[in-house]
Each structure stands twice: as structure tokens, then as C-alpha cells.
Structures
1.
Amino acid sequence: MPRDALVDLILSHFTPRYVATGVDPHDLARLAARLERWEDWCREWSAEAARHEQLAEEARARGREVTATEASLRAAIYYHYAKHLFADHPDEYRQAHERMLACYGAAAAGSSPPMERVEVPFEGGVLPGWLRRPVGAARSPVAILLPGLDACKEELHAWSNAFVRRGVASFTLDGPGQGETAFWQPIRPDWETVIGPVIDAFEQRTDVDAGRVAVVGQSLGAYYAPRAAAFEPRIKACVANCGPFDFSLALPEMPACSRATFRVRSGAADDAEALERARQLSLEGVAQRIRCPLLIVFGAGDRIIPPSEGERLARAAAGPTELVVYEDGNHVCFNISYKFRPLTADWVAEQLAL
């Protein structure tokens, strides 16, 4: 039986992303060989995740904490990709999500630097995030890292490494429609109302500098970041990595499972309503309010969001703006993570060295 075309499509789009964020390429090759039907996606990824989870448990039982932490992080990212674009299968999605959280939490204390779970009060609930502070820093600047449509805060672990190594604390966040928060808050356009309470929470701490905050987003998170920067004056710098200027232009061209993910995460009843909600995710008439330094990164080979969206943002923003387009880059430039991660972290560190 020939393999489901959707499996091939997703692997062709996202294999660089899987590898760049912590999936072992040999594990991925074995997974790809087993995957024949899209319906098997979550089950096969979860089985591979469970194997690494078992390795973590065995290492922890023998007091090998470094090995246990590494295996737990691998298991977490595998469970995350088990639910990747699987929002139409809520039971399997939720089970993989819970295992991801458990594995990532198991790695928190042993990571370098350690990860602190922070819950920011928001509209009757909380926005969860992971704070990592540079070792030895008394009061460091902070980069708030925002995932995209089908990502979550735990996926951003490898990117956060680049910031903490340069003396910038990282705060990876699940906002409305993302990760844990998606179960009670749908996608929304007004991300200044999301980032504001996060900065409020930083102002209550003595170990981070709330006067030096950057917001950094990838994919749909690279709409949220400039939107927040347009209205939240406490943001001192903004990075938008392969984000839409007008999401409604990109949504109809996305794979069916990506469109379904947006429909579910936005709370839309059908595709027509989803498109209407996508039209609200636009920087038209908003980008002109961005006055802080702005770095826009794109891959010329992006098949999800066209680079012309970055050019629109660069033309519209009112503050100092830099547009970097990598000719060899794909969506979020995952295939050249050794380029975009140092660039974004160096740039933020330089902007926040006030």
C-alpha cells in the first residue's frame, strides 16, 4: 500500500525543523520508514518518545542525572511532534501533550541553566512559561520567545540556549492558542494584552531586568511579536522570524492539517469562519506603530509564509529595522539554524545592552 501523501508532505515540510529542535536524524529515518498512514502519526511518534522516556528513567535510577536530563528532553520533543498538526484527534493530542509536559518538567532541574516554571496571571487563568537565567547573572535582560501556530514553548528549548549563552534570560511562553494555554484560550490578535502581564510579572522579580525586554517570535509568533511591540512601550527590541503580515493570505495555501489546526485553535466552527479570524491577524495599520529596533528574518525558500510578507513589515515599521533574507533558508530557517539562532541572539543581546 502506498504511503499516505499527507505523511510525505509533512515530512518534506518539517524534517529540518524536527532535527533542528532535537530529534535524532536516525530515529527520524526509522520513524519515516514505519509511517504509512497519517492516522498512525501520533501513535508512532509516541512509541519512539516512550523509548527515550524509558532511557531517562533507567539513567535516573542509576544516578546518571546528565544522561537522564538529555533523554527526558528528547522524549519531550518527540511527544511534542507526536501531537504536531494532530489537533483533529483531541484524545491522542491531549495524551501526547501531557507526556511532553511530564518529560520536559523532569528535565527542568538538570538543564543548564535550570528551567523555572512561571505562571503569569491572565484573565482568570495563567499563562505558563519556562524562565532560564544565565548562570552567575544577578539581573539579566530578558527575551520572551513566542512559538507559532503548531508549536509550543517546549519546542523553543534549543533556541533559548542561544540567548542564555549570550547573557540574556529566555522566557518561552504559551500564549492564547498555544501549548497548554490552547486548552482554555483561543488564538487572538491583540498580543499586547498578553505580553503586558508577562512584563508586569518580570517587574515583580529582582533576578531579571524588566527594563530590558525583547520579544522574539517564529512563524505565527512572528505576527504576535511585532503586534505586541506596536502597542507595548516597555518592549525594547523585537525579532520576527518568518512571520505573516496578513495571515489570511497564507492560511488557504497551507496543508489541510495546518488549516485544521488553526480552525481548532482559533475556536472557529468551520473553514469560512477560520478565514475570517485569520483576517484579524494582520499588521495593516499596526506596523507603523513599531518604534523599537526590529529584526526581520526570512528564508527565501519559505513554502509556508512568503518572504514578501517580511518585506511588507520592513516597509511599514517606523523604527530602526533590519531585514535579513537567507537565500538558502526554509520556513523559520530551520535548515540553517546555525545562522538564524546566532543572528537573533547576538542582535537581541546587543540591543538590550543598554
2.
Amino acid sequence: MGSPVILLWGSLVLAPVTIIVRYVLHAGDVPLFVLAAAALVPLAWLIGEATEHAGEHTGPGIGGFLNASFGNAPELIIALFAVADGLPNVVRGSLTGSVVSNILLVLGVAMIAGGDAVERLDRRSLLMQLGLVFVAVLAFLMPAVPGRHGDPERHSLAVLTIPVAILLLALYGVMTVDNLRRHRAAHASAPGEEAWSLRRALFTLSVATLLTALVSEILVHSLKGFGESAGLSQFFISTVIVAIVGNAAEHGGAIVIALRGKMRLATEIAVTSSAQVALLVVPAVALLSFAVGPALPLSFRPIELVGMGAGAAFVAFVIRDGRSRRWEGFLLVGVYVAFVIWVALAGDR
């Protein structure tokens, strides 16, 4: 067991500490937000680990269902709590940030870590995933364009969002089997690991998801106070900080695999994770918002649509030759930094 894994196991103590600090010590929003954000990182990793180990016993079919259901659990849970708290801009910002950070920041850092790789990338698969992100952005235009005029949170836009969400989920269903088998192969290729028992994997998954829900609630409730104290807009916090925290498992996994020299797999994880958020998490949150209320329209701002669409197009241009080069990784990270600065300047809606 490597030192990063030991560190992740040890940092799981942050989850109960966060809960105690919130409900026993009644700490302020700033320490609560910092603690909750830090606690979600190892929880996201643990959910990913438990899901992969469960898939070893259930086969690719049920294992794929578990991956689809729990692999993006942190982002989904955070978004639903933000919906219930009446923070639609935070929801859309965090989802936008998840898509953009995966294809620019994570992919870029992975390419830097992997260096000038000899191994060719799966160009066809990567371009397909990026194409799906672009298709999702085009679908988001349906509620986003009328959302530019009048109240962007009006119920009629939420109703207009329903067919868009169903379309994207159907498209995700078509691509799921192949991608989830790829994730299963990724776990199988990790050296020196033995699968947990199914009972242990499912128990760990249940506990980690429950703790993620509790910590996510604390994170969302403290977000506004943290933003005011830090002088940051809610849009910046959700699009940059919350998005990176919610995607911690994919972020860390892709970079570690890149350090092992497996660039083909590392790039697949980063880009596929982005497509999963766009085609699974975003429409799922939109549909589930009708149950937790208020209903969430996918009325993204122009900066969000441009960030996702232009990010996907730029990455497609960079990897078009099927090669991974360190300088291209620095270029992608630089573009992400520019996006972060744009988000900081844009402020709240």
C-alpha cells in the first residue's frame, strides 16, 4: 500500500471531525467549509474504490450500474443539497466546473505527469467523448437561450429542461456499457491489489455515501458564509473549488495512472469523466430537482456554455494526432487558469 493511499485512509477521519465540529462545537462557516471540502476528497476516493471492488464480484453489467450510480455520487449529492437550499447558480456552476476541470485541468496535469509518452492515445474514443460533451452543450442551449430573457429560474424553463435531460440520459445509456467496462479494466490493471469481499465493498460504499451526504450538506450550508468572508463569489466557489472537490476521485486517479506511464488509460479517465458529468449527472440533477424542489432549469450562463464547449473543442484539437506531450499538458492547464480568471471576473448572476 503506497503512501498516498495510506494518507487517504488516514484522512477519512476528517468526515466525523467535520460532523462533530458542525453539530457539537457549532463552528463558523469558514472552518466548516474548509473542513467539509477536505473531508470530501478521501470520501470521493473511497466511493470509487468500493465501487470498483464491488464490480469485481458482480460482473460488468451490475458493476457498471454501481459505477454509474455511485461513481459521481459526490457531485450529485452536493448538487441536490444546493437545489434544496435554493442555490441554482451554485448547482449549475459546480456542474460546469466538473466538466471543464476534467478536460482541461485533470487531463493537462496528467499529460504533464506522463511526459512525452510513447504510448499512443485512443484517439477515436477520446474524440467521441469530447463530441458527446459538445452535443450536451448544444442541448443545453434549448433552456439557456430563453433563460437570457426574464427570470432564468422560472418553472416553464424547468419544464423545457425535461426533454433535454431525457435525451441526454438516453444518449448516456448508449455509451455506458463500453465506458464502464473500460473503468473495470482500469481497476483490473492496477498492480498488487486484491478485490475486497462483496459484503465489505457494499458496506463501505453505503457508509461512504452516507458520510458524503452529511458532509455535502455542511459544505453547501456553509458556502454562502465562506464566500462572504473570503470575498469570493458563489459562482467562483462552486465552479472552481466545489467542482474540484466533487471530482477528487477522478482527478487523483487519472494523475496517479499517468505517473505510472499509462497515458492511454489516464486520458480516458479524465475525458470520460467529463462526458459522464455532462450526460449523466447534469440531467439526473435536473430531473431529481422536481422531487427535492425547487425545479432546476438548465439555463446555463454564456460563460458556462462557452467554457464547456470551447474546452471540449480545444482538447479535441490538442489530442487530434493521438499523442501526449508535456508541453500540451502545460497548455491545457494554462487554458484552465484563464477560465478560472474569467470566472472570478464574471461574478454572480
3.
Amino acid sequence: MRSASLAIVLSSALLAASLTGCGSAATEEDDGTSSEAAQSLSSNEHTAYEYFIGKGLKPIQAAAIVGNLMQESSVLPTSVQPGGPGRGIAQWSTGARWDRTSHDNVHWYATTKGESATSLSLQLDFIWYELENFSVYGLARLRASTTLSQAVVAFQNDFEVCGACSQSARIHDAQQVLNAYGSGGGTSSGGSTGGTGSGTGCFSSTLGKEMPANACVQSRSDKAWYQCSDGAWVDRWNDPTPCAAVYPL
């Protein structure tokens, strides 16, 4: 029994050494590779991400908006809140930003554009109209965000002003979008990258907190290893940068 225990300890030590060594080792995040994450997302979610990248937002900021919209409506422009006032991809309220607030409601905006209030493109345009024209909706704070979780919370608090926000779910969905499209998965982003620089952290759903750049975490969902690289989780074995810290299950 003692020799078996020693073998386990030595095996664990060798794993940790390989993870922190250059050119070897492991990685994190719950949704696997970018192609697998992309397959689980809808075309509307991809369209929305590319739209906000096209407006000049950074990948973590565009992903943060889409993660919020996924929780609000699954990015369905015809979505109706069961028993409530929410409508559209951002669940604007009837009697207010959906159809009533002066010069700030979806129906009025659709009339000015000659488009349907329930079209995805119109609602994406209206989100951008609100962000650009009303400082209260937090575009400045969104643009100042340097981590995915900061960006998610900025849009959640300033634009959505939700009641039961399910913040961790919004961050998880945003991370899924970033994994799928933020590291080259986008097709028209004109430089879609995983984050905002080598010091950008990543939110770990496995650990439930923001992790620093180059942290290596073993994912609870698939037991694989992922590394935080420029704001996105990547397969550890494909990243030559040594792990700054190792978090096994």
C-alpha cells in the first residue's frame, strides 16, 4: 500500500511538472474546442457577435453582450417573456423601451427604418442606437472592461437592468461565445482575437471565478486541461507558454 501511494504522489508530481513546462501540458473550460462550442451555438448568436465586433467592440465585449442576450431571449427577436413585459432579444419592456419611451423604443425605431420590429437586424441596430445615444446604458463602461466578467456585468447592470440576473449563467454563456468565435472562430470580425492582451484573465466555470492569464485549469465537464490565453480558454497542449498556476480537479 505504501509503494502504491508513493506511485500516485510521483505521478501527480510529474503531471504538475509537465503542465508548468514550456511546450507541454494542459488547459481549461467547460465547452471544449472552439469548433465544438460553435456547433452548440445558434446562427443568431454568431450573427450578433459578428455585429458587435463590426461596431468596433473587442471580442470579450461583443461576447459579453451576446451572453446577456442568450439569457434574456436565446437571441430570438420574436421572444415574449411568459407572463411578463419583456420582448425581443434584449427583452425590452412593453409600455417602455419596447413601444412607448419617447425616441427610445423598438417600435418607433423600426418605423424610422421602415423595417419590422421583430427582425434580428433591426433589434441589433436598436441596441447599438441605444448604446451610442444614451450614456445611461453603459457603452463607456462596457468599452472600458478588460475582462469578460467585467463586460458581462457592465451590460447586465447598465443596459438590461435585470431583476433575477443569473449573473454566473450570463458569464458562462459569454465564455461559450468567446471560445467559439473569439479566437479565430469569427468570419468577418477583421481581427477577432481571444481578448485584449497577454494580461487578460478568463472566467472559469469550473472554479466559479476569474482566473489570471496563463492559469491552467482542469475542466469539470470533460476532465481536459485548458489554459487562459489572451482572455479565452485554449487547449493547453497547443499553447507553448508555461502555466502560471495549475488547478487540477
